[in-house]
Amino acid sequence: MAKQAVLFDLDDTLLWDDRSVQEAFDATCEAAAAQTGVNAKALEEAVRREARALYESYETYPFTKMIGINPFEGLWANFLEGEQAEFRQLQQLAPEYRKEAWTRGLNALGIDDEALGAQLAERFPAERRKRPYVYEETFAVLDKLKGSYKLLLLTNGSPDLQREKLAGVPNIAPYFDHIIISGEFGKGKPSPDIFRHALERLGIEPEHGIMVGDKLTTDILGANTIGMSSVWINRHGMTRTDEIIPTHEIKHLEELLPLLL
């Protein structure tokens, strides 16, 4: 069945978010190491662990899980937008969450320094914002698709944070006919509702679309659920089970092009 539209995930499909986050951790933890002598990598591991535990302890956790906002986005997001009451809770929680995650991370390594924790909590968002990375093949692939297919960006996350990521690489958004952010819609991938909403915006049936993303549990599962073709971009050679089976698996975005012919 000829495809009329290509739906793309954003983070770690078009934008190289993993690299941005990793380098922000590296820079922040190295700054802490210079001040205290702590092992930078051990601090990163401790902060990631403490951030996850804290994040999951908040009453907002089921909401963030449903919308698709991870703990490390919480370490730099402001949560200024979004109509749901939970976004206002997150906006209130965020400054303390950031400070507590870094302070507890330091504590885990024997450093009791709340002032340093607060300093690192501000440094990490600044370091992340300096690093809006995009994969080298992203624009070449979008150039080849634009004009031949309807293009839709379907991303999980907080509205203001996802828009900030797009603003960091301003050339991406103009490629898309529609941009749907889970925090604006009210449900995140893999909910079939957000996928059906995307198809309605495109004016197509499921068999005429194809979803491209890096996460089996959100991008691929959601597309499969509504009967739409799915393409799993598996850049890191991860092994999958037969629980969620993509229509296609690729290692590089340019491998998508022959699948559409």
From TrEMBL:
EC identifiers of the protein: 3.1.3.3
Substrates-to-products reaction catalysed: O-phospho-D-serine + H2O = D-serine + phosphate; O-phospho-L-serine + H2O = L-serine + phosphate
Family matches, as InterPro entries: HAD-like_hydrolase, HAD-like_sf, HAD-SF_hydro_IA, HAD_sf, PSP_YsaA
Pathway: Amino-acid biosynthesis; L-serine biosynthesis; L-serine from 3-phospho-D-glycerate: step 3/3
Described function: Catalyzes the last step of the phosphorylated serine biosynthetic pathway, i.e. dephosphorylation of O-phospho-L-serine to form L-serine.
Signal peptide: none
UniProt superkingdom: Bacteria
Record NCBIfam families: HAD-SF-IA-v1, HAD-SF-IA-v3
Family: Belongs to the HAD-like hydrolase superfamily.
Origin species: Paenibacillus glycinis
GO molecular function, one term: hydrolase activity
Bilayer-crossing regions: none
Cofactor or coenzyme needed: Mg(2+); Co(2+)
Keywords annotated in UniProt: Amino-acid biosynthesis, Cobalt, Hydrolase, Magnesium, Serine biosynthesis
Enzyme class, broadest EC rank: hydrolase
Protein known as: Phosphoserine phosphatase
Keyword Glycosyltransferase: no
